[in-house]
Amino acid sequence: MWKLTKKYMKDVWVLLWSKTEVDEKAIATLKEVQKRYKLTAQEIEDVASAMKEVANQIDDIPNALKGNGRKGRKVVHKQKSKAEIAKAKASRKAWEEANKKK
Predict the structure, then answer these.
(1) In whole angstroms, how large is the CA radius of gyration of the chain?
(2) With b meaning 16 or more CB within 10 Å and e meaning fewer, what string describes 46-60?
(3) pLDDT band at 46, cuts 50/70/90?
(4) Taking the alpha carbons of 14, 15, 18, 22 in that order, is the dihedral positive or negative?
(5) Distance between CA atoms of 3 and 14, rounded to whole angstroms?
(6) 3-state SS of the chain: helix, strand, coil percent to 5?
(7) DSSP letter at 20?
């Protein structure tokens, strides 16, 4: 009986030490470090891609100094809604009528 009680006490002691705040703090710290590492790696990738874009844009400076036009994406014009088109047509008709009378 004494051996069984002694073994039980040792098991409880080990269990208590395994659940201490030190372990919980270590686990929490490890999770925080992993999270920060992931965010930092992502930010470094973003910076690297931005640096590549800047390097590509630097090549355009001499051409701009020579007076050549810009290269790159063409400007995409936003399509007007049907209401805007109708309003523009109405104002155009009013303008034409005003100019015809003169």
Answers:
(1) 36
(2) eeeeeeeeeeeeeee
(3) very high
(4) negative
(5) 16
(6) 80, 0, 20
(7) S
What mean pLDDT is reported for the chain?
Answer: 84
Average pLDDT for 56-63: 81
Q: Say which residues have a Cβ less than 8 Å from residue 64's Cβ, sequence separation at least 6.
A: 70
**Where in the chain are the domains?**
20-68
Cβ atoms 60, 71 nearer than 8 A: yes
pLDDT at 84: 86
Residue 90 tokens read as 């109405």
Greater confidence (65 vs 37) lies with 37
- Closest to 80 in 3D by CA, of 69, 71, 91: 91
CA–CA distances in Å: residue 79 to residues 19, 72, 88: 63, 21, 13
